[in-house]
Amino acid sequence: MGSGFLNRVYFGNTLLNYLISAGIIIAGLIILKIIEKVSIHRIKAFTSKTKLTIDDLIVEIIERSVFPGLYFGIIYIALKRLTLTPILTKILDIAGTFVLSFLLIRAVVILAGYGLERFWLRREQDENKVRSITGIITVIKGIIWAGGIIFMLDNLGFNVSTVITGLGIGGVAVALAAQAVLGDLFAYFTIFFDKPFEIGDFIVVGDLMGTVEHIGIKSTRLRSISGEELVFSNKDLTNSRIKNFRRMNRRRVAFSIGVTYDTPLEKVKKLPGVIKGVIDRIDKATFDRAHFASFDDSWLRFEIVYYVESSDYYVYMDIQQEINLKLKEKFEKMGIDFAFPSQTIYLVNQGNG
Known about the structure:
alpha+beta, Alpha-Beta Plaits, 10 helices, about 15% strand
């Protein structure tokens, strides 16, 4: 009686077959859950004692991709042993393709994220740059997911070429409408990867200059010497000639001073040596030359060249200020006057007598 009951057929399968499939699912899931708990616990206990990060990656892939795939595999095998209608068979096969593709894409994204974070984030200390890199990694993960979904739809039998063509036409329209935004976005990637400047660099763009404070996806912000914020679109920056003073090993400085024409010749001859002595005593300043260069309209012009052994603009200004103060002090002691624009008018007496 009992045997006859179990052999009754429902929807193409005996009741015994249904019970066996259910037993396979229940027992398989329980056994696999125990294996997962024990194995993951032991692997984590082992990896916690090592300094490597690759083992943590392996644990994450096993937890998020391998075991979910095994759970689904048990259910899939148990259901596959039953006699199913063509529609149910197709649904099960589609579900299997979907689940396996999803888990595979997830594993690839985890691997890609690990590689990118290890390559970029571990090398960066700047908080703003870390945020930018994190944003780029998110975009790359999104691209991987999009490509994986297209691959999955193709395997499921969808005509993805028509969808891609439609997206391509729509993409062209969007690109034309958002050309400026896309231009700044691509310029951002150029700045990020090519690194013509970085946060903290002092740069000159045309007749504007300042220290880079923020590099965003759309724009870059500089802080000028006078304090105001300068905002440039990334595309404008990549299309401009940029002077990056932070990349200099040393800064060449040339400037001129003038003394009055009534300065005695003996003192004029001493001035190059006096200037050299002043610059030689200043830290981070290397004297190059000082010459009596020319007779100008109102003064005798001396041309001085020296090097600042630093790329910092503020260091250069401090040194130049110190040179100016020391020269004024020396000139006052020597009784030499700095020249200023002036005119001397000679009056000739043309009297009748």
